[in-house]
């Protein structure tokens, strides 16, 4: 069975852990969008691994891990990640495949990300990794792909054009000295040499896998409300995070996806700027952040925290056709007296049960909350769904009703064994 795993909030839902668990029974694990802005944390025993580009499934032996064409690649960061894994005794040499069609993040993308952000009056809170400018070049048809890096003549042509155009913009608009062709050319050719062993026609590879009835897991990065089309634009990332991104980002037919699993936290978090209707006040936010270790895995930035927002989750489930839900970090709510869930928004006397796209509404909407009693018990040792405290079961059952979806996995800690399957 082929599964797509999608984040239903603003990223950091704990997808890395769920991917790691589901990978056990899969043959291929595929990233299809985003870049090294993502940070997927997986805890194995007492060791914590953080992945930015390589699918978290790499921790399992004999799985083919694919970076699909929809991903943007920063070669230095990729090579660092490969080294970091090697130091932990995990070799990617046989099992990592990178699409020749991935676009490559260049130094000017990273610098432009930061320069643009510094000039914006409404800052996005970008990770500054050059993701947006790289995708912008892809759409503008001037991007450089992995396959271009492998052909020094083509790479030279494309880089020359790019540097000429970028340098003019950097100097005139941003008062930046610009970039040296020679420096980037030789640096990136050296990267290409190291990366070339992993490069493949991954769309064909996956199509062949499908023909052989292999099991594929598509690993989403970021969350639905960071999706370039459906997220809280412009406070979003620059790729399609929702299930539609799987087909374009991996080169497979939608008919190949048998199951769509959505991942939500038992509450909500967000890194970076943008509207967040259920955000806690500072004191309570600090408390939950500490308890849930809510700091960005990529930038270390403190995450903003808030109550579970059923309006968001419901919309995300519908957008991706999610059939089963994994709820993570339930244990973080263990000792709370009261827990709130947002069931609708209110703005100027009007109730919004559906996610409003009008920015003014979203920014000023007041959540309509339903109150739940806490369970005041530790859940992290519980192995069976039915053994969860009664109030935790009430909470989960209410969430199921509000999001019209079945909760199949509950995560009650960062370790593999702290997971309840229903
Ligand atoms: P960018 O994609 O790095 O430009 O970031 C755009 C927005 O998406 C910012 O608010 C980031 O904090 C957020 N973002 C990007 N990647 C992730 C992620 O993996 N988890 C959570 N937020 C992310």
Description:
With 422 residues, the chain is an alpha/beta fold. The chain folds into three domains: 3-99 and 198-261, Adenylosuccinate Synthetase, Chain A, domain 1 (3-Layer(aba) Sandwich), CATH 3.40.440; 103-195, Orthogonal Bundle (Adenylosuccinate Synthetase, subunit A, domain 2); 264-421, Adenylosuccinate Synthetase, Chain A, domain 3, CATH 3.90.170.10. The protein is 34% helix and 21% strand. It is built from 13 helices and 20 strands. It has a ten-stranded mixed β-sheet with strand order 9-7-5-2-10-1-11-15-19-20, sandwiched between helices. Strands 14, 16, 17 and 18 form a four-stranded mixed β-sheet that branches. A two-stranded antiparallel sheet has the order 3-4. The model has no long low-confidence stretch (mean pLDDT 96). The structure holds inosinic acid. Inosinic acid binds at residues 10-12, 37-39, 124-127, 129, 131-132, 221-222, 226, 235, 237-238, 271-272.
What does this entry show, briefly?
GO terms for molecular function: adenylosuccinate synthase activity; GTP binding; magnesium ion binding. Homodimer. 34% of the residues lie in helices and 21% in strands.
**Main sheet makeup:** 10 strands, mixed
For this structure, what is the CATH class of the largest domain? Alpha Beta
CATH topology of the largest domain: Adenylosuccinate Synthetase, Chain A, domain 1
Count of discrete domains: 3
**Shape from CA axes?**
globular
Quaternary arrangement of the chains shown? single chain
Can you give the helix content as a percent range?
25-40%
Q: Output the strand order for the largest sheet.
A: 9-7-5-2-10-1-11-15-19-20
CATH superfamily of the largest domain: Adenylosuccinate Synthetase, subunit A, domain 1
Number of helices: 13
Overall pLDDT score: 96
Low-confidence stretches: none
The proportion of strand residues reads 15-25%
Separation of termini? 18 Å
Q: Per CATH, which architecture of the largest domain?
A: 3-Layer(aba) Sandwich
Ligand catalogue: inosinic acid
Number of extended strands? 20
């Amino acid at each position: 069975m082929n599964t797509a795993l999608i984040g239903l909030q603003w990223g950091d839902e704990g997808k890395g852990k769920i991917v790691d668990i589901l990978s056990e029974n899969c043959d291929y694990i595929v990233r299809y969008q985003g870049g090294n802005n993502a940070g997927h944390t997986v805890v194995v025993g007492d060791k914590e691994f953080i992945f930015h580009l390589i699918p978290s499934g790499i921790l399992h032996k004999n799985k083919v891990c694919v970076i699909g064409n929809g991903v943007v690649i920063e070669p230095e960061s990729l090579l660092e990640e490969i080294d970091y894994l090697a130091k932990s005794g995990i070799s990617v040499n046989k099992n990592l495949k990178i699409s020749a069609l991935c676009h490559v993040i260049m130094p000017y993308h990273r610098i432009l990300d930061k320069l643009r952000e510094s000039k914006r009056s409404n800052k996005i809170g970008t990770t500054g990794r050059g993701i947006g400018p790289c995708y912008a070049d892809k759409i503008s048809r001037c991007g450089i792909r992995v396959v271009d890096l492998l052909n020094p003549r083509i790479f030279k042509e494309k880089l020359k054009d790019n540097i000429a155009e970028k340098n003019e913009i950097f100097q005139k608009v941003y008062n930046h000295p610009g970039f040296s062709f020679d420096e980037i050319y030789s640096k990136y050719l050296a990267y290409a040499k190291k990366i070339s062993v992993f490069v493949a026609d991954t769309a064909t590879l996956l199509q062949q896998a499908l023909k052989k009835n292999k099991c594929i897991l598509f690993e989403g990065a970021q969350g639905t409300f960071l999706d370039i089309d459906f997220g809280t634009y412009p406070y979003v990332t620059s790729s399609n995070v929702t299930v539609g991104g799987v087909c374009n980002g991996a080169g497979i037919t939608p008919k190949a996806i048998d199951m769509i699993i959505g991942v939500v936290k038992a509450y909500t978090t967000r890194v970076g700027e943008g509207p967040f209707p259920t955000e806690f006040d500072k004191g309570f936010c600090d408390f939950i952040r500490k308890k849930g270790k809510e700091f960005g895995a990529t930038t270390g930035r403190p995450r903003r925290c808030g109550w579970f927002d059923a309006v968001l989750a419901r919309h995300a489930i519908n957008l991706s056709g999610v059939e089963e839900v994994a709820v993570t970090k339930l244990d973080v709510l263990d000792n709370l007296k009261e827990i709130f869930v947002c069931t609708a928004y209110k703005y100027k006397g009007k109730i919004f049960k559906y996610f409003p796209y009008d920015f003014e509404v979203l920014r000023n909407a007041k959540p309509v909350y339903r109150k739940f009693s806490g369970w005041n018990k530790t859940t992290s040792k519980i192995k069976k769904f039915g053994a969860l405290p009664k109030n935790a079961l009430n909470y989960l059952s209410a969430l199921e009703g509000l999001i019209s979806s079945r909760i199949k996995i509950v995560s009650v800690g960062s370790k593999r064994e702290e997971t309840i399957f229903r």
